[in-house]
Amino acid sequence: MDIFEQLDPQAILVLLMVIFAAIKAFFEQRKKVGSEETLEEETNLDLYQAYEEEVARQRKELQIELSPPASPPASPPASPPASPPPLSDAIPFSKPKATPPPPLPSEPVLPKLSAAEAKALNDLNLRKKTSSRKAKGSTRSRVYRHLSSPTAAREALLLAEILGPPKANQEKV
């Protein structure tokens, strides 16, 4: 009991608070690790299901796109053919003619602006031209300007009173 009498009661309180916080952090970390494992398993399963759904959707789209184009409706046959004609007599397949894309316009077509829009555009262009900031000089010139102001002198006096003389000017004890 001699140790507890020598220690400050506030130090004991702080030590107990640190121990309590460490125990609490340990349990939270343990709880978080357990939830991360289950979350990771669920995430992997969700990713796999999403992948499978995407593959199925793509397969479905490809089958639709690869299906033969609809043939024009045929007129009802007058007499049923006895046998198909020989391949040499058949009409050869013709490739669909590729139509060239339409020519691009030589000049871009600008939209028509209303009077209010044109005025706003002119105002914006004028503002951009007039509001370009001029370079305000270097940091050194700003510092000199600030230090030469009376406010800076007041601040320096206040700091000198609060902090005392610089360490270089203090006598060594």
Biggest beta-sheet profile? none
> How would you state the average pLDDT, rounded?
77
Percent of residues in beta strands?
under 5%
**How many β strands by DSSP?**
0
Pattern of helices and strands: HHHHH
Structure description:
By secondary structure, the protein is an all-alpha fold. The chain has a domain at 2-66. It is built from five helices and no strands. The chain has helices at 2-6, 9-66, 115-130, 139-147, 150-163. The chain is flat, with a radius of gyration of 43 Å. The mean pLDDT is 77.
Quickly describe the structure:
The chain is mainly alpha-helical and 173 residues long. It has helices at 2-6, 9-66, 115-130, 139-147, 150-163.
List the main descriptive attributes of the protein structure presented here.
173 residues; mainly alpha; 0% strand
How would you summarize the topology of this molecule?
Blueprint: H1 2-6, H2 9-66, H3 115-130, H4 139-147, H5 150-163
